[in-house]
Amino acid sequence: xxxxxxxxxxxxxxxxxxxxxxxxxxxxxxxxxxxxxxxxxxxxxxxxxxxxxxxxxxxxxxxxxxxxxxxxxxxxxxxxxxxxxxxxxxxxxxxxxxxxxxxxxxxxxxxxxxxxxxxxxxxxxxxxxxxxxxxxxxxxxxxxxxxxxxxxxxxxxxxxxxxxxxxxxxxxxxxxxxxxxxxxxxxxxxxxxxxxxxxxxxxxxxxxxxxxxxxxxxxxxxxxxxxxxxxxxxxxxxxxxxxxxxxxxxxxxxxxxxxxxxxxxxxxxxxxxxxxxxxxxxxxxxxxxxxxxxxxxxxxxxxxxxxxxxxxxxxxxxxxxxxxxxxxxxxxxxxxxxxxxxxxxxxxxxxxxxxxxxxxxxxxxxxxxxxxxxxxxxxxxxxxxxxxxxxxxxxxxxxxxxxxxxxxxxxxxxxxxxxxxxxxxxxxxxxxxxxxxxxxxxxxxxxxxxxxxxxxxxxxxxxxxxxxxxxxxxxxxxxxxxxxxxxxxxxx
Length: 492
Fold this sequence. Notes:
With 492 residues, the protein is an alpha+beta fold. It is built from 12 helices and 16 strands. Helix 4 packs antiparallel against helix 6 (281-294), helix 6 crosses helix 8 (353-382) and helix 11 (446-457) packs antiparallel against helix 12. The longest helix is centred in the last third of the chain and has 30 residues, at 353-382. It is globular and about 80 Å long.
């Protein structure tokens, strides 16, 4: 529905728009409903109000993968210039919290475009917003740290991305994108509830820190075939590597050569077990565990992002963030699809560093995972953001005809799901490190005896200690386990 048709509908309904205040700005909600902007603001979520030049809508072309490759994606996504205003209800009044101003390249305004791959095929489109001047659209009160030009609007109707990013944080990934739910209006039409989120890019202050001139952010990408530049993988044509930093149009021939050498070395090290010299093992293990906790079933194995601080041999390849939870919470009783390709080789490798680290991270977070997730979901439900999202679900459903009806019901389902998932993971991860490896180092030695004595003297029990600490497997943790472990170390 164009603004002209919105105007006709409003006249037919006896509503005359006066563009003076938010109560006079009328918004189309679906095909037959007109609502004053201030009623949407009153729902409580920030409202991102976008007006593009000449009311142009972002468009794209849809493309399918070539033979031998996977997926469907988009191309020729138009960058549409315009203005962005963020409104928020504060102290009972509609407040303008941010205004980009009208579009003028490198001066003010913004551009908006469609983004994503298969997600762009859905009715509710994801968007990328690029500001002409850096700002913190999450309005955290410190632009000197958080400002950036690139922001995402993601569909997260069932909170899987929100929950996944919380797990990302609990597991201890290098970086967790910050986010907030917003209501979005584009060219006078309500588009729904979106997750306003930081994008994956170089920003040493608040996103990914890699060297400006010698650092890289890249992706093991099933959609490489839709990019202008890529680095060859031994897993081609299913996967190749694409650039996130620097931008592909800025990559020099010598940089392309370096990246080809780097990824070839990486893939070979994973295959022959020398990977400990090439990768940050802890970040790889944590990435895998995030998706195992989330039960991710993405057929492409989810988005695998890597960073390399610079070109020196002393800086490892890091997996800084887990991303893409559209296919999460799909299984309670199987490994996630992160156990594919490189990850499966790391798990099966005779070099047990990855498996040891994987088990170690679980020991760090496993005992508190359910409590933290249940507390987080309940807190979200009771928060101002959760209540505002609940108020907005009704108008979101008018537009799309489907979606959740209650935040509290979603939270209840998540809690039940995580409880089931936790026990399956516990039973399959705990046996990964050998009996007697109390400090989860990968070896059984005197250091484990020392650690076990400290646990026993401190009153630890089996539920609060590593699985491997119950050396005699009697369900208890006591001096008998210390005796058994001493004997085990002497016999070795």
